[in-house]
Write a structure and sequence with these properties.
The protein is of the alpha/beta class. The protein has helices at 36-49, 77-87, 89-94, 104-110, 112-117, 133-143, 188-191, 200-212, 236-246, 264-272, 290-296, 302-315, 334-346, 374-397, and strands spanning 3-5, 26-32, 54-56, 65-70, 99-103, 123-125, 146-149, 170-174, 176-177, 196-197, 217-221, 251-255, 280-282, 320-327, 351-356, 403-412, 417-422, 427-431, 440-448, 452-458. The strands form 5 sheets. It has a 7-stranded parallel sheet with strand order 1-7-6-5-4-2-3, with helices on both faces. Bound molecules: 5'-deoxyadenosine and iron/sulfur cluster.
Length: 461
């Protein structure tokens, strides 16, 4: 196949595609790796591909277009892409019309190199080229050539509309993309580019449109949501206030926030609008040791993090915190790891997401010479989870007997059970009827487990 590189100027979201679209409906299968950001991107891809008459299918065998939406934050993604594409070799033999593409972090990182290394691939596109997908696929099909589109559109404003085929009760809304923080372990600034924010006025409109489609809860998404800055100058706290005041959305969540940008103004707004702004904050600490934090380029010390956590607990009673932790960062000593362990005693995280450090391409820490042995990392990770398990169980027990406001999201026909999340982001199961989906009900908690709660519905608070 010859190769074409697409330049800037993609397809506007929502625009009618004059892209030689097919008359006949075809199947598209997207294989998604990584975080919520990627899940959201895949949803967007499905919606955009509707322009070309593609409908989602459940298995690669049913598809005439397969896309691998890759992630490289913590995985060995290039190997994964190679092996997944390898699995499609027989499908491609049986159906020469099948087109296979790779998007996400690996597409961004590897660009044309990926096409050279994996000849079975038809196209590669980067994280800033999602909106060009209909154009890319049409080009691949019409020209018979392979296509690479992985340029960052640093100068383009971030103007998109949330595209989602079947929004549920709760949905995700991107507010920023990219990241300028350059934590030394993290590949995101290289795979997602410079940070940009969507204008506040667009977000108000976008969320109102989702409300009109039945959405009750939005989670605002960004790599570092609290460095949000609208073109009108509004910061993240002002964005939250505006969304709480000017939209009819019932609940607002957000992820991920950065401790260095967390301030009193933000927690005050959360407390003032707590009827809409859920009392749950994911506040990644990464390490409990100040020297390690410095080498990570996190921009705060252990003490400063503890002070921010205290400010949050003092301002928002009942708030729930969760965090991300990396163990075995280059040079991390046993004593420094102990500081991370002891942080769990000081900050009552109800859940933690912990990972063994893994070197990522382009990042500073990958070049540090004092890498920690794999078995030491595994041992530290186990100790961390073990310590948290003991604490989490006791924390969960405090919910027994309490009444929580639960937004009902799902009904299980077999068991007759409903499930939904409390404002503290606790998953709650209880018995009830399907019509309650989308409603907020009070549930009295009977039994608490570390990750889920079980209760029964009550009429009033
Ligand atoms: N190794 C291990 N964990 C990482 N994370 C990001 N980069 C790495 C890496 N190189 C974790 C951080 C971040 C979460 C999304 O992934 O904890 O907060
Ligand atoms: Fe990565 Fe740090 Fe940016 Fe988070 S803030 S995306 S960890 S560089």
């Amino acid at each position: 196949m010859n190769q074409v590189t697409l330049q800037a100027g993609g397809v506007e979201a929502g625009a009618e595609a004059k892209l030689g679209s097919e008359d006949k409906t075809q199947g598209v299968y997207i294989s998604t790796y990584g975080c919520q950001m990627n899940v959201n991107d895949s949803e967007r891809m499905y919606s955009l591909l509707e322009m070309l008459n593609y409908q989602p299918v459940a298995t690669p065998e049913q598809a005439s277009l397969i896309i691998i939406n890759s992630c490289s934050v913590r995985e060995k993604p290039v190997h994964k892409v190679h092996s997944e594409v390898g699995r499609y070799r027989e499908l491609k033999k049986a159906n020469p019309e099948l087109r296979i593409g790779v998007g996400g972090c690996v597409g961004q990182q590897e660009k044309d190199r990926l096409l050279k290394d994996v000849p079975l691939l038809d196209f590669v596109f980067g994280t800033d080229a999602i909106d060009k997908l209909p154009e890319i696929v049409a080009r691949v099909k019409d020209s018979g050539q392979s296509v690479v589109s992985a340029k960052f559109e640093h100068q383009q404003p971030y103007h998109i509309e949330t595209l989602i085929k079947n929004p549920g009760v709760s949905t995700f809304v991107n507010i920023t993309k990219g990241c300028d923080n350059f934590c030394t372990f993290c590949v995101v600034p290289f795979t997602r580019g410079r940070e940009r924010s969507r204008p506040l006025a667009h977000l108000v409109q976008d969320i109102q449109r989702l409300v009109a489609r039945g959405v009750k809860e939005v989670t605002l998404l960004g790599q570092n949501v609290n460095s949000y800055r609208s073109d009108c100058g509004a910061n993240f706290a002002e964005l939250l206030k505006t969304l709480a005041e000017k939209t009819d959305i019932e609940r607002i969540r957000y992820t991920t926030s950065h401790p260095k940008d967390f301030n009193q103004e933000l927690v005050d707004i959360m407390q003032a609008y707590r009827h809409k702004l859920c009392e749950y904050i994911h506040l990644p600490v990464q390490s409990g040791n100040t020297e390690v934090l410095e080498r990570m380029n996190r921009g705060y010390s252990r003490q400063e993090y503890l002070e921010k956590a205290q400010m949050i607990f003092d301002t928002i009673p009942g708030v729930v915190l969760s965090t991300d932790i990396i163990v075995g960062f280059p040079g991390e000593t046993d004593a420094q790891f102990e500081d991370t362990l002891s942080l769990l005693d000081e900050v009552p995280y109800e859940s933690i997401f912990a990972f063994k450090y893994s070197p990522r391409p382009f990042t500073k820490a990958a070049r540090f010479t004092d890498q920690v042995a794999e078995d030491v990392k595994s041992d530290r990770l186990n100790r961390l989870f073990e310590r948290h398990r003991e604490l989490a169980f006791a924390m969960a027990k405090k919910y027994e007997g309490r009444r929580l406001a639960v937004l009902v999201e799902e009904y299980d026909q077999e068991t007759g059970r409903l499930s939904g999340r409390s404002t503290q982001n606790k998953l709650v199961h209880f018995t009830g009827s399907e019509e309650l989906i989308g409603k907020t009900v009070w549930v009295e908690i009977k039994e608490a487990f570390p990750q889920t709660l079980r209760g029964h519905m009550v009429l009033a608070q």
